[in-house]
Design a protein that fits this description.
Strand content: under 5%
Structural class: mainly alpha
Length: 158
Amino acid sequence: MGKLSILCLKIILAIATAGALFVQFGMIPMIIFNDSHGTGAERLVSGSFLAYLFIAGLIIEACVYCVWKLATRVRRGTVFDPASLRYVSPIIFAFVIGALATFTLAAIFASSSEIAPGIVLLIGGAGVLMIGISFIVLVLRHLLEQAAQLRTELGEVI
Protein backbone atom coordinates (compact mmCIF):
# COMPACT_ATOMS: atom_id res chain seq x y z
CA MET A 1 0.00 0.00 0.00
CA GLY A 2 1.22 3.43 -0.86
CA LYS A 3 1.31 6.46 1.37
CA LEU A 4 -1.76 7.91 -0.34
CA SER A 5 -3.77 4.72 0.19
CA ILE A 6 -2.91 4.63 3.87
CA LEU A 7 -3.72 8.33 4.24
CA CYS A 8 -7.14 7.80 2.59
CA LEU A 9 -7.78 4.79 4.83
CA LYS A 10 -6.93 6.78 7.94
CA ILE A 11 -9.22 9.63 6.85
CA ILE A 12 -12.07 7.16 6.40
CA LEU A 13 -11.31 5.60 9.79
CA ALA A 14 -11.31 9.04 11.44
CA ILE A 15 -14.68 9.85 9.86
CA ALA A 16 -16.09 6.49 11.01
CA THR A 17 -14.87 7.13 14.55
CA ALA A 18 -16.34 10.64 14.57
CA GLY A 19 -19.66 9.26 13.33
CA ALA A 20 -19.73 6.52 15.95
CA LEU A 21 -18.93 8.99 18.72
CA PHE A 22 -21.61 11.39 17.46
CA VAL A 23 -24.22 8.64 17.53
CA GLN A 24 -23.11 7.43 20.97
CA PHE A 25 -22.82 10.76 22.71
CA GLY A 26 -25.03 13.01 20.60
CA MET A 27 -27.89 11.14 18.99
CA ILE A 28 -28.62 8.49 21.62
CA PRO A 29 -28.90 11.01 24.50
CA MET A 30 -31.13 13.25 22.35
CA ILE A 31 -33.41 10.32 21.57
CA ILE A 32 -33.55 9.32 25.24
CA PHE A 33 -34.39 12.86 26.41
CA ASN A 34 -36.99 13.43 23.69
CA ASP A 35 -38.54 9.97 23.83
CA SER A 36 -42.25 9.89 24.51
CA HIS A 37 -43.27 7.48 27.20
CA GLY A 38 -44.84 4.50 25.48
CA THR A 39 -45.99 1.15 26.67
CA GLY A 40 -43.66 -1.39 28.24
CA ALA A 41 -43.20 -3.30 24.99
CA GLU A 42 -42.44 -0.12 23.04
CA ARG A 43 -39.91 0.97 25.64
CA LEU A 44 -38.22 -2.45 25.53
CA VAL A 45 -37.87 -2.29 21.75
CA SER A 46 -36.68 1.32 21.80
CA GLY A 47 -34.27 0.78 24.70
CA SER A 48 -32.80 -2.37 23.21
CA PHE A 49 -32.26 -0.61 19.89
CA LEU A 50 -30.49 2.31 21.60
CA ALA A 51 -28.33 -0.10 23.61
CA TYR A 52 -27.52 -1.92 20.37
CA LEU A 53 -26.46 1.36 18.74
CA PHE A 54 -24.15 2.11 21.67
CA ILE A 55 -22.58 -1.37 21.50
CA ALA A 56 -22.20 -1.02 17.73
CA GLY A 57 -20.33 2.24 18.30
CA LEU A 58 -17.93 0.53 20.70
CA ILE A 59 -17.35 -2.25 18.19
CA ILE A 60 -16.67 0.24 15.40
CA GLU A 61 -14.24 2.16 17.60
CA ALA A 62 -12.35 -1.00 18.59
CA CYS A 63 -12.06 -2.13 14.97
CA VAL A 64 -10.97 1.33 13.82
CA TYR A 65 -8.22 1.40 16.46
CA CYS A 66 -6.90 -2.00 15.40
CA VAL A 67 -7.06 -1.25 11.67
CA TRP A 68 -5.33 2.10 12.28
CA LYS A 69 -2.50 0.32 14.09
CA LEU A 70 -2.23 -2.27 11.32
CA ALA A 71 -2.16 0.45 8.65
CA THR A 72 0.65 2.16 10.54
CA ARG A 73 2.54 -1.13 10.61
CA VAL A 74 1.98 -1.54 6.86
CA ARG A 75 3.41 1.93 6.25
CA ARG A 76 6.46 1.08 8.37
CA GLY A 77 6.91 -2.32 6.73
CA THR A 78 6.45 -4.23 10.01
CA VAL A 79 3.03 -5.77 9.37
CA PHE A 80 4.51 -9.27 9.00
CA ASP A 81 5.95 -9.10 12.48
CA PRO A 82 4.19 -11.53 14.87
CA ALA A 83 3.35 -8.51 17.07
CA SER A 84 0.79 -7.48 14.42
CA LEU A 85 -1.39 -10.42 15.38
CA ARG A 86 -2.44 -8.70 18.61
CA TYR A 87 -4.34 -6.18 16.49
CA VAL A 88 -6.19 -8.79 14.44
CA SER A 89 -7.75 -10.89 17.20
CA PRO A 90 -9.77 -8.00 18.71
CA ILE A 91 -11.37 -7.43 15.31
CA ILE A 92 -12.52 -11.06 15.24
CA PHE A 93 -13.92 -10.84 18.77
CA ALA A 94 -15.60 -7.50 18.03
CA PHE A 95 -17.48 -8.99 15.08
CA VAL A 96 -18.51 -12.04 17.12
CA ILE A 97 -19.81 -9.78 19.90
CA GLY A 98 -21.55 -7.67 17.27
CA ALA A 99 -23.21 -10.76 15.81
CA LEU A 100 -24.39 -11.88 19.25
CA ALA A 101 -25.78 -8.41 19.94
CA THR A 102 -27.49 -8.44 16.55
CA PHE A 103 -29.08 -11.83 17.18
CA THR A 104 -30.22 -10.61 20.60
CA LEU A 105 -31.77 -7.52 19.04
CA ALA A 106 -33.52 -9.71 16.45
CA ALA A 107 -34.92 -11.91 19.22
CA ILE A 108 -36.21 -8.88 21.13
CA PHE A 109 -37.75 -7.48 17.96
CA ALA A 110 -39.30 -10.88 17.16
CA SER A 111 -41.08 -10.86 20.51
CA SER A 112 -42.72 -7.54 19.66
CA SER A 113 -45.89 -7.49 17.59
CA GLU A 114 -45.01 -4.02 16.30
CA ILE A 115 -41.93 -5.09 14.33
CA ALA A 116 -42.50 -6.71 10.96
CA PRO A 117 -41.09 -10.23 10.50
CA GLY A 118 -39.13 -9.05 7.48
CA ILE A 119 -37.22 -6.57 9.64
CA VAL A 120 -36.36 -9.35 12.09
CA LEU A 121 -35.14 -11.48 9.18
CA LEU A 122 -32.97 -8.62 7.87
CA ILE A 123 -31.44 -8.10 11.30
CA GLY A 124 -30.77 -11.84 11.59
CA GLY A 125 -29.14 -11.75 8.16
CA ALA A 126 -26.88 -8.93 9.34
CA GLY A 127 -25.86 -11.13 12.28
CA VAL A 128 -24.98 -13.98 9.92
CA LEU A 129 -22.98 -11.52 7.81
CA MET A 130 -21.02 -10.45 10.90
CA ILE A 131 -20.19 -14.07 11.70
CA GLY A 132 -19.00 -14.45 8.10
CA ILE A 133 -16.78 -11.39 8.41
CA SER A 134 -15.27 -12.76 11.62
CA PHE A 135 -14.38 -15.99 9.79
CA ILE A 136 -12.83 -14.03 6.91
CA VAL A 137 -10.69 -12.05 9.36
CA LEU A 138 -9.75 -15.32 11.10
CA VAL A 139 -8.53 -16.74 7.78
CA LEU A 140 -6.59 -13.52 7.14
CA ARG A 141 -5.07 -13.82 10.62
CA HIS A 142 -3.84 -17.31 9.77
CA LEU A 143 -2.38 -16.00 6.51
CA LEU A 144 -0.61 -13.25 8.44
CA GLU A 145 0.80 -15.87 10.83
CA GLN A 146 2.10 -17.93 7.91
CA ALA A 147 3.60 -14.88 6.21
CA ALA A 148 5.32 -13.85 9.44
CA GLN A 149 6.69 -17.36 9.86
CA LEU A 150 7.92 -17.47 6.27
CA ARG A 151 9.55 -14.06 6.66
CA THR A 152 11.33 -15.26 9.81
CA GLU A 153 12.54 -18.40 8.06
CA LEU A 154 13.69 -16.37 5.07
CA GLY A 155 15.58 -14.02 7.39
CA GLU A 156 17.39 -17.00 8.91
CA VAL A 157 18.39 -18.28 5.48
CA ILE A 158 19.73 -14.94 4.35
